[in-house]
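$ ./design --mode recover --in tokens.txt
reading tokens...
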């Protein structure tokens, strides 16, 4: 099997589980087997595997789940808590099961499918990595971080928000904010769900998947259910929609109402680019509706810096402010594409150069050591210019030019903002009617 972060974690967990099993620490072994299977399922969904590797992982999941079930039965019998159900009509259900999911193979299959929605590895996006959007960040901290850290603050009539909708034009950072929530939410279980996770071709299965998702969130609370592009699941009901789509929405409404009134510790976080198509009842379930607008000028300057990272550049603070002023109407995603294009400019200079000269710069082997025999592209008239192409330069001798202001301006000149003016008007109208500024 190919190696990967989640896959390696799964292997480590089941290795430890086997060891605990041998040492007769059956409760700990059962827990580790189940935890390991969660990581295997996450690996299947998010990490590249060969067909043979996928088949091997599925086989391991079945093997370890069967062992975990046997251990659960053994522990229940030993403690005298076995919850055996009478077998009706000569049925052959396994005895010793202690939950509905153990007896219902369909439910078990759905739970296994949804396991992949649980984000195991934190995305490592901090609040400080999100430029601007201060009101949105404060609302999310209020809904997620404070109730976990200071639960005593939310007693009596003071309750944390149960539903938050992030809406705005594409590329403004809605999903990025959700990644920050997943990182900063500490010991919360983060479910990242798309419509494909909840829609099934089989009659009645989609609403069961929705129900199981909320049941899993209740079992693992504090939980956050993040549903990206929620409009694809919960658009306005109409006479010509399919019965299946209507049932999914109804189940979603029922579950969100239940989350809002019957349970603590669960937040539903939705994101959409087209909030005006949401069903009115779904919209009401999201108590806070936060407008994630196009970045303001100071935020755009910060976004340029974030995407440049530690790439060598000669840009100064005034340069970043100039770039921000020249990108009015650009989203965060648009700016990231501008920067990526500008980062390629030094590579293009290397490719097209006809002359190189010797310069002093950091060693490839050890950047802290300066060496004087590196080669960099130059004009034919430069002092020390040698006629040659990049094919004549050794790999460890090349010093590429740093990213310049001209590189950035050239990229901006060939880029256009992707946000449609008409959609922007619709989103702003929705904000005026139903939302709050983020």
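writing sequence...
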């Amino acid at each position: 099997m190919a190696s990967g972060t989640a896959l390696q974690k799964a292997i480590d967990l089941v290795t430890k589980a086997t060891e605990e099993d041998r040492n007769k620490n059956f409760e700990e072994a059962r827990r580790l087997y189940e935890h390991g299977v969660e990581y295997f399922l996450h690996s299947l969904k998010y990490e590249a595997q060969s067909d043979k590797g996928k088949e091997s992982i599925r086989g391991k999941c079945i093997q370890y789940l069967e062992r975990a079930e046997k251990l659960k039965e053994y522990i229940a019998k030993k403690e005298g808590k076995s919850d055996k159900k009478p077998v009706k009509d000569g049925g052959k259900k396994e005895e010793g099961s202690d939950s509905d999911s153990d007896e219902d193979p369909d439910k078990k299959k759905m739970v296994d499918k949804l396991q992949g929605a649980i984000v195991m590895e934190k995305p490592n996006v901090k609040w400080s990595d999100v430029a601007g959007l201060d009101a949105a960040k404060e609302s999310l901290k209020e809904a997620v971080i404070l109730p976990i850290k200071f639960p005593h603050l939310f007693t009596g009539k003071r309750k944390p928000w149960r539903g938050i909708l992030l809406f705005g034009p594409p590329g403004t950072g809605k999903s990025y904010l959700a990644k920050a929530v997943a990182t900063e939410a500490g010991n919360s279980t983060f479910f990242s769900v798309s419509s494909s996770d909840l829609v099934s071709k089989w009659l009645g299965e989609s609403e069961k998947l929705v129900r199981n998702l909320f049941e899993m969130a209740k079992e693992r609370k504090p939980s956050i259910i993040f549903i990206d592009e929620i409009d694809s699941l919960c658009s306005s009901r109409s006479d010509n929609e399919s019965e299946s789509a209507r049932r999914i929405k109804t189940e979603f409404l029922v579950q969100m109402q239940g989350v809002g009134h019957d349970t603590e510790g669960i937040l539903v976080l939705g994101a959409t680019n087209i909030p005006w198509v949401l069903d009115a009842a779904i919209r009401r379930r999201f108590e806070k509706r936060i407008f994630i607008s196009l970045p303001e000028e100071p935020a755009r300057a910060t976004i340029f810096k974030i995407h440049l990272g530690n790439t060598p550049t000669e840009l100064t603070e005034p340069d970043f402010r100039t770039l921000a002023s020249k990108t009015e109407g650009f989203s965060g995603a648009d700016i990231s594409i501008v920067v990526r294009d500008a980062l390629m400019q030094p590579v293009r200079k290397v490719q097209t150069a006809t002359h190189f000269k010797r310069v002093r710069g950091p060693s490839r082997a050890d950047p802290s050591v300066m060496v004087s025999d590196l080669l960099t592209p130059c004009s034919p008239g430069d002092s020390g210019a040698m006629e040659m192409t990049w094919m004549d330069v050794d790999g460890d001798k090349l010093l590429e030019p740093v990213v310049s202001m001209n590189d950035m301006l050239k990229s901006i000149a060939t880029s256009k903002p992707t946000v449609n003016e008409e959609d922007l008007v619709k989103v702003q109208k929705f904000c005026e009617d139903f939302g709050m500024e983020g």
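exit 0
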